Amino acid sequence: MDETTPSVSLVSCMHFVRRGVAKAVPEKIELTEKELEKIIKQTADDLRITERAEQGLDDSDSETNEDNAAPVPADPNDEFNFAKYDDEDNLSNPIGLGTIATLPNLGDLSEDVQIRTDGPDSDEEDDIIKSDDNLLLVGHVESDASILEVYVFNKEEGSFYVHHDIILPWFPLCIEWLSHDPSDPQPGNLCALGGMDPIIQVWDLDIENCLEPAFKLGKKPNKKKKIKRVGHKDAVLDLSWNRNFSHVLASGSADNTVLLWDLDQGAPHTTLDYFEDKVQSITFHPLEAQTLLTGACDGRARVTDCRTPTACRAWSLPTEIERVVWDRHNPFCFVMSNNTGKVAYVDCRQDEPLWMIEAHEKEVTGLVISDNIPGLMITVGTDAKMKTWDISSGAVQVSERQCRVGAALCTAVCPDDPLSLAVGGDNKQCCIEMVDLSVSEQVIDRFGSRPRVAIPAEDSNSMES
User: Which residues form a coiled coil (predicted)?
Assistant: First the structure.
């Protein structure tokens, strides 16, 4: 195998951002050498703690064995011996400076990274995010590197390119956009990221070359420092921001819980712990601020009234729920999919699903009900197929296409163009694909004459009262 060919290249999660919320020209951070060294040291320390935790040696759960303690550095201000780095053949840095040298924002010259200069050959127009541009946030894993890529998408201009990216310390599993910044009364352009680590990171998308998130949700325990755990104990699998109560963010985890975070306090306000397995999918109701829909690996989808967290109803779809989605056009209804290819439509006022179909041969990893076009449902699966359905009355398959990305792992629909969507997969040659459903005769014949519903940029706060 060619050494330059990555062993893994996949897109694990993605999320579209509406037009007009991003700064036209994001701010850029210029780091000094000392600031960069400090960040490298902190990252190394974090990764060392993570590595010990994975080996069952977490400082939080047991006292550190003094015999195994790291040697005290000669210079307390130079823990990793950076002063003598050039004199050493092999550096036992837990993260390795080779990793830092490949950060796109720190001078990676690989062909996948666009290096912009101030010279006459630079395309300065690409730096500007226009009012009719959408952003697509993509969690990309390539070889042993995990990156959040911020794409610019403009269908009318045929534009689709990476505007900037952010290096991540772990495998990303979910992305959620939010505008609530606890440090600023004005709406922001932020995204929350969940991954293999229990700590949720929130990044400011209007800042380039940023190596630290705007803030984090959660803390790992440490007995020596008398720090108690805050937040989840395991990987964060899904996130949902409450657009009606903008200071609330929900997170589902592999620790079998859902946490409702108060962003202003930076701490969980409510814990839902009645799940019997990992919580893979969560979403707040688009109109009822207090209502949360969850799907878990115990084969049940649950609807919870967050004002009374113990009050919930459940519907089964064995064996594992992959995705759950509300139907905005029928506020009492939602759709759920599972790991064997089934999709079921549920009316919360009834005990059993209204209908169930064998949508795919394998896991249904992408599930969308259009907010703008009544009756349009889109599914993608690890069988490398994407299908459209008319669910106005039952479920009728409208179209089917093969995904170029291989086994599809996620999908996202453009909020300003309901027939444009992105699909992410695990194909090394092509792991992200933009799909234009407006070129499908079957889709246009079926949905072309239906009225488009205008969805406001921010949902109403009427439920707050």
Answer: none
